[in-house]
Design the sequence.
């Protein structure tokens, strides 16, 4: 995949955000590399510079898209899901998020079993929410704010809400709270250390909700994007959508972001130019340039997932099993012979 370095702290930064298929960035050539960069927030370290090289683009590389693209994609989605709509009981709405699409394209038995388990906040879920909130606050409180302060502010802010997470945070024991803060602090520190400080002219937006309605709201496509940078200009794609992850690469991370690119294209009329999963533990982004082919792959995945989900939930289809690493978190793993070797490391 072609990668173009982005100058940090100069006019090119406003074009931050172009790029491709599963990303493996070529090393920038000496002639294309910008000189060492300094700006009001200081010189970037090599990890931050790598991120900028991967996510950046020059103006002449920014892709243009057909102004009719959103209408074409909407028509393709509705044509592909009209039989799903016919199978959807009256009064029901089908909501599809990246999690539901991953679930239905993974082990269907697990998906069905998890629907029987009431949702509860847990330490790992809360840790992610607190870390994301702290990273969001870092955009506005400045890169020099210590991560632990960002985490404390994030927890205070979340506790002020009327939400299940706020109730859970208010209920936990002091020791559990301290552990949560330490783990969230680790994530935020990694982001601050290896991601370039976000500049206001990159138009950073965090935790942005996306919603697309098909068939006047009978089928909803929903998303919440961790971080976006840039904004489309006319029919020129400039936005980069970034998902923040701990742990390592999984193939569905690519599909998650293609889904977000599709939602963005349907919402704005212009897709992001690039989507990227940023891995906090390794400090590396894995990026893909958005093309019409990428968007059509996302349309096909939504179409197939919607059809299968309605068949499982409202039809007579029998859930298939697909064993893999996710067996470790499956609520019915104890009685599932297919889980086999994937549970060998279980305590
Ligand atoms: S244990 Fe694994 S194979 Fe069995 S239902 Fe759960 S996820 Fe599917």
Sequence:
């Amino acid at each position: 995949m072609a990668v173009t370095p982005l100058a940090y702290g100069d006019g090119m930064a406003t074009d931050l955000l172009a790029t491709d298929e599963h990303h493996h960035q070529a090393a920038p050539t000496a002639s294309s590399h910008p000189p060492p960069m300094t700006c009001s927030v200081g010189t970037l370290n090599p990890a931050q510079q790598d991120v900028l090289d991967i996510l950046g683009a020059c103006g002449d590389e920014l892709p243009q898209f057909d102004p009719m693209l959103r209408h074409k994609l909407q028509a393709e989605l509705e044509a592909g899901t009209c039989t799903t709509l016919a199978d959807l009981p009256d009064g029901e709405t089908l909501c599809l998020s990246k999690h539901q699409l991953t679930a239905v394209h993974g082990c269907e038995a697990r998906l069905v079993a998890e629907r029987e388990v009431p949702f509860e906040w847990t330490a790992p879920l809360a840790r992610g929410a607190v870390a994301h909130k702290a990273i969001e606050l870092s955009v506005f409180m400045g890169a020099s704010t210590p991560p632990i302060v960002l985490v404390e502010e994030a927890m205070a802010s979340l506790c002020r809400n009327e939400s299940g997470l706020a109730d859970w945070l208010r209920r936990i024991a002091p020791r559990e709270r301290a552990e949560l803060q330490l783990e969230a602090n680790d994530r935020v520190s990694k982001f601050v250390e290896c991601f370039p400080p976000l500049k206001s002219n990159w138009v950073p937006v965090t935790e942005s909700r996306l919603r697309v309605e098909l068939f006047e709201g009978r089928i909803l496509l929903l998303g919440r994007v961790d971080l976006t940078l840039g904004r489309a200009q006319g029919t020129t794609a400039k936005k980069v959508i970034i998902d923040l992850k701990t742990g390592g690469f999984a193939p569905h991370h690519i599909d998650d972001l293609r889904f977000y690119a599709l939602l963005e294209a349907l919402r704005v009329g212009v897709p992001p130019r690039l989507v990227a999963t940023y891995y906090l533990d390794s400090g590396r982004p894995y990026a893909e340039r958005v093309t019409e082919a990428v968007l059509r792959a996302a349309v096909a995945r939504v179409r197939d997932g919607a059809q299968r989900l309605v068949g499982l939930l409202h039809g007579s289809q029998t859930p298939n099993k697909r064993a893999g690493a996710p067996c470790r978190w499956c609520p019915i793993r104890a009685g599932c012979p297919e889980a086999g070797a994937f549970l060998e490391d279980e305590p």
